[in-house]
Amino acid sequence: MKDKSFTTTIFVNQSPAAAFGAIKNFRGWWSEEIEGHTAVPDETFFYHYKDIHLCKMQLVEVVPEKRLVYRVVENEFSFVEDKTEWVGTHLVFDISKEGGKTRVTFTHDGLVPDYECYQVCNDAWSTYIGSSLKNYIETGKGSPNPKDKEGFNAELAKKWGLR
Q1: C-alpha triplet 154, 156, 160: angle, nearest 5°
Q2: Residue 66's closest CA among 29, 99, 20, 101?
Q3: Is the CB of residue 69 less than 8 Å from the CB of residue 57?
Q4: Do residues 143 and 156 lie in contact, with contact meaning Cβ atoms separated by under 8 Å?
Q5: Would strands 101-109 and 90-98 be described as parallel, antiparallel, or unpaired?
Q6: CA torsion sign, 61 to 39 to 50 to 142?
Q7: Neighbours of 119 (CB within 10 A)
Q8: Which pLDDT value is given to residue 90?
Q9: Model pLDDT, residue 52
């Protein structure tokens, strides 16, 4: 199973519509350092954290209240040999009702354990999805990386010895 993509699931006390709307606002749960539209199909947006991670993504699939898929168009990491490891991968958010809760399953399709960035990305996605996005959906307050300040990315960079 070494080629299995990263996936994690959260359950939230909000409707699928609320989860769907929150996910599309990457600034509310991932980072305030985003330029462009994250909720407009076929639009490309740009994310960056210092010179450690630069990424362009495009919203490529929208099924209202059920599914969002973002394709990584360009990517550059400063801390791995193959700086473009994410290029061509997809961020997939599947939303459904389960019992009295809404289930959000996040899969970074193509992010596999063979990638040099896998452990760093595993740590990052686990926190962004399991904590920041979950809180953002449920309370309207996530923990995105603040613009021009230190945040979770700084903690992660320190933990992993990234410059």
Answers
A1: 120
A2: 20
A3: no
A4: no
A5: antiparallel
A6: negative
A7: 11
A8: 98
A9: 85
Q: Write down the pLDDT at residue 157.
A: 55
Distance CA 94, CA 135 (A): 17
Q: Any alpha helices (H) in the chain, and if so which ranges? A: 16-24, 26-29, 118-127, 134-139, 152-160
Distance between alpha carbon 140 and the CA centroid of its chain, in Å?
Answer: 17
How does pLDDT run across 31-76, given as a tens digit for each residue? 998 999 999 999 999 998 888 889 999 999 999 999 999 999 999 9
Q: What angle do CA 146, 136, 71 make, to 5 degrees?
A: 75
44 token code pair = 């490309």
Where does the pLDDT of residue 146 fall: very low under 50, low under 70, confident under 90, or very high at 90 and above? confident
**What's the pTM value of the predicted model, to 2 decimals?**
0.91
SS3 state of residue 16: helix
pLDDT exceeds cutoff 90 at 162: no
Distance CA 65, CA 93 (A): 10
